[in-house]
Amino acid sequence: MTEFRAALRAGVALYDAGEFHAAHDPWESAWLPLESGTDDERLLHGLIQFTAALHHAHGRNWSGAVGLAGSALGYLADLPAEYRGVDVAAVRTSLGALERDPERVERAPPPVLTHEGEALAYADLDLEAASVAAEVLAEEYGFDEEVIADAVDYAGEEFGTGRSRFAAMLFDFLDGEPTRAFVFDRLEKHVERKRREEEDVAGLFEEREAER
């Protein structure tokens, strides 16, 4: 279940960075194939609606926030106080407060989400979870998703080799403004160079095969 854990932690880190809208994307990708009514499905469904409720509240859509908070509570109601490393009890408490008074988001900071007892910064993620978060943010902010996807592949190829060029740039991309666009430009140049190297190798291989 490493993919589930990576999606869960990516979403928590995005949420804790204030990316309420983007946070639901990794959870949704992991949630869609799950059997309805299972504990994993209800956890992710509840978290998705939790972030959606906060997103609506920050947009002053009070009725939408109240409805989603109540729905999220329903999905999380029967889960243990802690499940899959998530403090479900704290999420339920936050949802109850939001359902009663959605305008509270204008008077207090949003509740912190934790996983295994800790709020997550991007630096706390492993490469798999960081890659998920980077692809989500690329879509959220209109960066070329193919560049990020290739960078993720190249970072995976480098894993364990002692070279972490693409991984380092992915984490820099996650760090955000004011440098995200600059980091993306640099990352795109490295991706294009790597693509050309692969094309050159493929072309040389084809030439050798043709000579046989």
Short description:
The protein contains 9 helices and 2 strands, in the order H-H-H-H-E-E-H-H-H-H-H. The protein has 212 residues and is mainly alpha-helical.
Describe the model.
By secondary structure, the chain is mostly helical. The protein has 2 domains: 2-122, Hyaluronidase domain-like; 143-211, no CATH class. 69% of the residues lie in helices and 2% in strands. The chain is built from 9 helices and 2 strands, in the order H-H-H-H-E-E-H-H-H-H-H. The chain has helices at residues 2-16, 20-31, 39-58, 62-76, 88-100, 127-141, 145-158, 165-175, 180-211, and strands spanning 82-83, 86-87. The protein has a two-stranded antiparallel ribbon. The longest helix is centred in the C-terminal third of the chain and has 32 residues, at 180-211. The protein is elongated, with a radius of gyration of 20 Å. The N and C termini lie far apart (46 Å).
Q: Strands, helices and their partners?
A:
Blueprint: H1 2-16, H2 20-31, H3 39-58, H4 62-76, E1 82-83, E2 86-87, H5 88-100, H6 127-141, H7 145-158, H8 165-175, H9 180-211
Antiparallel strand pairs: 1-2
Helix pairs in contact: 1-2, 1-6, 2-3, 2-6, 3-4, 3-5, 4-5, 6-7, 6-8, 7-8, 7-9, 8-9
